[in-house]
């Protein structure tokens, strides 16, 4: 546990940690590409460690800054820990291995659905064994089709897995009901960096066989930066450096959202600076940027009027994020109402208390920001869960508060 002491104001700058989404993709594309792939500025956290271990298990020689691969994939036993990206991409990639692979993870990951990807693999002629959740057995090496449909209503990770598969075998992927669409843009960008040709045709992605991944430079992460940008909007002024203004990350939308809420936002080529303004609640559909939901709920508690947030598929993340935020903010005294597909939250006087993030890194970081303005100290239980995506979160927070 960690104790959070309230602050009166905030004025400082930090450097954004590297992007988790890009790091996952760079490691897996390095596995699929013959030769050596260099990776600059990777994010080192428990989620990306799961992917690094998977890449090694599949037969590549790899470390944080490089992957050296024959381009072939060997059957493997994969422990994805709590990383949904690792699990889903590994399930897709294991279809290339000539033999049986097993993908499993921790209990929380075993609750996250895999069925749309398993159905797509079955339609391609790949046999799998599962109850729709982890563990999943994949009997690879026999892809018989070059066209497949996938339901993208739960996660865009299923689509990414199939697009990566297409880089090795050639595949047309028709996407039904896509969510988190900007995450697909990250996938398409990294495929382009790996010299994979992809054409779009009205919801169908035609991926041409052939990949040569030589170098990835991982940009700063808007998801992780969002916690401190929101802190700037509430408590004073924060500049986050290392953010590419031209990036395609879903969570770059935090810049526009903060403006809509009333914060003063300044964007440079490689930084975003947010200063406190007259904050007013908004209605936000988080379908395409679900990772912002927890911190936007906190922003709502500090904004005049009411904020309505919607993102039904958040109930399938590391925790039920809708329920987790509703319970914890209510415990702090917030006026919050849980909906089937989101939250309604009104401006509230928050009080310090013991907060349980339910082992969810984004819930823990969001509640920490909420606690900075509460009346009295708060305690965050199991604060080490932030190591899943942002191991130095509390270190960066301490540095920011002391500036």
From TrEMBL:
Q: Which UniProt keywords apply?
A: Amino-acid biosynthesis, Aromatic amino acid biosynthesis, Cytoplasm, Transferase
Enzyme Commission code(s) on record: 2.5.1.19
Give the binding site residues for 3-phosphoshikimate: 20-21, 25, 155-157, 180, 291, 317
Residue ranges occupied by any Enolpyruvate transferase domain in the UniProt entry? 5-397
Q: Which PANTHER family match?
A: AROM/DEHYDROQUINATE SYNTHASE, PENTAFUNCTIONAL AROM POLYPEPTIDE
| Organism domain of life | Archaea
Relate the protein's function as given in its record: Catalyzes the transfer of the enolpyruvyl moiety of phosphoenolpyruvate (PEP) to the 5-hydroxyl of shikimate-3-phosphate (S3P) to produce enolpyruvyl shikimate-3-phosphate and inorganic phosphate.
Name of the protein in its database record: 3-phosphoshikimate 1-carboxyvinyltransferase
Give binding positions for phosphoenolpyruvate.
20, 84, 112, 157, 321, 362, 388
Name the pathway it acts in: Metabolic intermediate biosynthesis; chorismate biosynthesis; chorismate from D-erythrose 4-phosphate and phosphoenolpyruvate: step 6/7
Matching entries from InterPro entries are given as: Enolpyruvate_Tfrase_dom (IPR001986), Enolpyruvate_Tfrase_sf (IPR036968), EPSP_synthase (IPR006264), EPSP_synthase_CS (IPR023193), RNA3'P_cycl/enolpyr_Trfase_a/b (IPR013792)
Q: Which reaction does it catalyse?
A: 3-phosphoshikimate + phosphoenolpyruvate = 5-O-(1-carboxyvinyl)-3-phosphoshikimate + phosphate
Which is a Gene Ontology cellular component entry for this protein?
Answer: cytoplasm
Q: Which organism is it from?
A: Thermococcus paralvinellae
The protein's predominant localisation is cytoplasm
Task: Say which enzyme class the record assigns.
Answer: transferase
Q: Which family does it belong to?
A: Belongs to the EPSP synthase family.
Q: Name one Pfam family in it.
A: EPSP_synthase
One term of GO molecular function: 3-phosphoshikimate 1-carboxyvinyltransferase activity
């Amino acid at each position: 546990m960690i104790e959070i002491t309230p602050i009166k104001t905030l004025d400082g700058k930090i450097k954004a940690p590297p992007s988790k989404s890009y790091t996952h993709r760079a490691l897996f594309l390095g596995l699929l590409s013959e030769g050596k792939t260099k990776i600059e500025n990777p994010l080192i956290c428990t989620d990306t460690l799961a992917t690094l271990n998977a890449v090694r298990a599949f037969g590549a020689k790899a470390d944080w800054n490089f992957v050296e691969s024959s381009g072939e994939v060997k059957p493997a036993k994969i422990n994805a820990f709590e990383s949904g990206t690792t699990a889903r991409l590994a399930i897709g990639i294991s279809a290339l291995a000539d033999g049986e692979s097993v993908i499993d993870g921790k209990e929380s990951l075993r609750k996250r659905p895999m069925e749309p990807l398993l159905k797509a693999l079955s339609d391609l002629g790949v046999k799998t064994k599962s109850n729709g959740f982890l563990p999943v057995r994949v009997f690879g090496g026999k892809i018989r089709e070059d066209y497949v449909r996938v339901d993208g209503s739960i996660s865009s990770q299923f689509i990414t897995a199939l697009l990566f598969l297409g880089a090795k075998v050639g595949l047309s992927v028709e996407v039904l009901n896509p969510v988190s669409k900007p995450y697909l843009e990250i996938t398409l960008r990294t495929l382009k960096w790996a010299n994979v040709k992809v054409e779009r045709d009205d919801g169908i992605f035609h991926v041409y066989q052939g990949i040569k991944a030589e170098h990835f430079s991982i940009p700063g992460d808007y998801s992780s930066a969002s916690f401190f940008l929101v802190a700037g909007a509430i408590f004073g002024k924060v500049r986050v450096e290392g953010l590419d203004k031209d990036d395609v990350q879903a969570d770059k939308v935090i810049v526009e959202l903060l403006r809509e809420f009333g914060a003063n936002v300044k964007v440079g080529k490689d930084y975003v600076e947010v200063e406190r303004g007259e904050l007013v609640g908004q209605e936000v559909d988080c379908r395409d940027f679900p990772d912002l939901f927890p911190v936007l709920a906190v922003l709502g508690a500090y904004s005049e009027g009411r904020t309505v947030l919607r993102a039904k598929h958040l109930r399938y993340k590391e925790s039920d994020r809708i329920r987790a935020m509703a319970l914890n903010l209510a415990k702090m005294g917030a006026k919050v109402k849980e909906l089937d597909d989101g939250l309604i939250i009104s401006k509230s006087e928050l009080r310090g208390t013991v907060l349980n993030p339910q082992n969810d890194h984004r819930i823990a970081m969001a509640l920490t920001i909420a606690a900075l303005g509460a009346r009295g100290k708060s305690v965050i239980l199991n604060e080490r869960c932030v190591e899943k995506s942002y191991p130095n979160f509390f270190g960066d927070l301490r540095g920011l508060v002391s500036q």
